[in-house]
Design a protein that fits this description.
The chain has a seven-stranded mixed β-sheet, sandwiched between helices. It has helices at about 25-40, 45-50, 55-60, 70-80, 85-95, 110-120, 135-140, 175-190, 235-250, 255-270, and strands spanning about 100-105, 120-125, 160-165, 195, 210, 220-225, 225-230. It is of the alpha/beta class and about 270 residues long. It contains ten helices and seven strands.
Length: about 270
Amino acid sequence: MPEHGTAFDTPRADGNGVRAKTLRGLLVARELDTARLARGLTTRELAGQMNMSPAMLNRVMTGRRVPTALEIGGLCGLLDIDPARRPHLYRLTADADLTEWIICPGAGTSALGAIEEVADTATWLEPLLIPRPLRTAAYHHALGHPIGDHQSPEPAAPPTDRFLLHPRALTHPAIPADVMGEQLRHLCHTAPNTIRLLPATFPPHPGFRVLHIDHFPPVVHIDHHGTHVILESPDSTVAHTTLLRAATTAAATAEHTRRTLTDLAARTGTVG
């Protein structure tokens, strides 16, 4: 009988302590405040230059208030924001009330990268494939991706990331046995404490990850063949966060997961 228990805690999904109104507003606030700090300005000093009250500027710098078009222009000028970067901030400000993102292939990954940078942790739920940050180059290539493409398995997963894998993800008809053996050994040696296996009876679900951001509701990221969908409204994410909590509760312990991966690796190749 598989061992189950508390796999690892997931941050609360109720959004308590939310400060920024939206994720776009938070990204604008973080970039502006980083530029303010780089110039050595206090909030009060910058507020004086903007003819704003310190309290109002503080709300802008925490994302609780979206700057107007005139204000974002003035802030970019006073903070010496790179002119090439300003159109991006203008777009984020203009669209700050939106709570869904669709980033199409070829549109670049800067927006996704910025969202990842503000996240403290991420929890992945994968039913069919090894998540990209955990893949070996050979496994990634066997799936049909050329080495060095925009979905390369590099870089490795941050140590704060957590992964819930369905047993189906440990087999794939397109992956040669030696490549899968290498991949399994890679999981055993590089991320044994960040992976939990789900029971085989747990219903498979399209893969996604939940990004946990301090003082913000959980953000759901879905990668559909290179098109990235970002959901941030609790009404849109509740089904995913509920499923994630159920999966976390059902997942095997770290020790049971490690033993399972080690045994499976031994059956598909010699454990190094």
